[in-house]
Specification:
Length: about 180
């Protein structure tokens, strides 16, 4: 009868060990993703090295769901560049083209005006009340490349939150049930 108790204890020990291994694997996946993101931030010089185009304001160049890769350099921003900027007090960055740049000779500060390629007017209506120009601190990065349509996963999870929970649940289930 003692060998049955030993076998049960042995099975419980194996199950506990497997559960701990799965938790460690999940932690490694999450920490790897964070390290990759932080590494991209260091390499690109941008606080957000990858963004998803959320609207059709830049069509036909960039469509809704395209992923943009950003880079921030010390070079002055020039007319025609596509930049991602953030307005003070707003959470969602905007992807638009620079249509005008004014540089003050005394301070070297640049004043930037943007416009979506598919929009009729410049972006002054998007800026905060009384703000007519963007400054360098508003710019998060310059578009240096893109992947078409890959960002639709992000858009769908944002617009339909239930999909996010289904995906997270499915990934968690996959990690728990996978064998080494």
């Amino acid at each position: 009868m003692g060998w049955i108790a030993d076998t049960v204890d042995s099975v419980k020990s194996i199950q506990l060990r497997q559960a701990l291994i799965q938790i460690v694997n999940l932690g490694l996946i999450v920490s790897s993703a964070l390290m990759i993101w932080k590494g991209l931030m260091c390499i690109t010089g941008s606080e957000s090295p990858v963004v998803v185009v959320l609207s059709g304001s830049m069509e036909p160049g960039f469509k809704r769901g395209d992923i943009l890769f950003l880079h921030m350099s010390k070079d002055p921003i020039r007319t025609g560049e596509i930049v991602v900027f953030n307005i003070d007090g707003r959470d969602i960055p905007i992807v638009h083209r620079v249509i005008k740049v004014h540089e003050r000779q005394d301070t070297g500060e640049a004043y930037i005006l943007t416009k979506g390629d598919n929009n009729d007017m410049d972006d002054r209506v998007l800026y905060n009340h009384g703000q007519n120009w963007l400054q360098n601190h508003h710019i998060m990065g310059r578009a240096v490349g893109f992947l078409p349509y890959v960002g639709w996963v992000t858009i769908m999870m944002t617009e339909k939150p239930v999909l996010k929970y289904i995906l997270i649940g499915a990934l968690g289930l996959l990690v728990i049930t996978s064998k080494d």
